[in-house]
Amino acid sequence: MAFDPAAFRRHVLTVLDDHAQAFGIPADHHAVLRGQIADGDDIHSRKTFPGHVTTSAIVLDTEGRRTLLIRHRALERWLQPGGHYEAPQSLAASALREAVEETGLSRLSLDPWHEASNLPIDIDSHFIPARPSRDEPEHWHHDIRYIVRAMPEDGLRPDLAEVEGAEWRDLADLEDVAPRALRNLKQLGFAAT
User: Which region is the signal sequence (predicted)?
Assistant: First the structure.
């Protein structure tokens, strides 16, 4: 079946609306993404500006006390694993793929909460600086985030072509990386106290 950009836009709009209702997010919080959807932009393509869809994984250990962060090579920051959406994957499958690629962990799985709720844990639009070496102007990443669970005995094997490193950090470190995701995790009881 061929990928349908219009159907993808409709799907992302439904995800936005459902997420906003579930977590009390004002509709104007995602004004740029909503505007791009209304304009018919190909938000699935990394070549679309002023922004496009990315996905990422909030990787938790089995106890919900630690999260796996990667050191992003281009942004030089610790972040959750993630990257550009690749059609025709589902949003959740895209997040899972990115987590496997960047961490080298092979036994990752999407948290069952997503199947029951049909929601991401967070949606965040953030500004990305221009990268002239890649002919990319400054733009927005509309990041759709999912909870991913890791097996504790899996060893990290980060892809050093993609990231500078990966390490398990205290869940509280998400406050500096993805504060709304951390708030939502706590609200739903995922975060161990």
Answer: none
The pTM of the full predicted model, rounded to 2 decimals, is 0.94
Q: What is the CATH number of the domain that holds 47?
A: 3.90.79.10
Q: DSSP string of 27-79? A: GGGGHHHHHHHHHT--TTSTT-SSEEEEEEEEEE-TTSSEEEEEEETTTTEEE
- Helices 31-39 and 5-23: angle between axes, nearest 10 degrees: 150
Cα first-last separation, the chain: 45
Runs of H (alpha helix) within 40-188: 91-103, 112-117, 174-177, 179-188
pLDDT over 60 at 193, yes or no: no
Nearest CA to 86 out of 98, 74, 78 is that of 98
The verdict on residue 37 lying in a domain is yes
Phi, psi dihedrals of residue 161, rounded to the nearest 5°:
-75, -25
Please state, in angstroms and rounded to a whole number, the distance separating the CA atoms of residues 83 and 141: 9
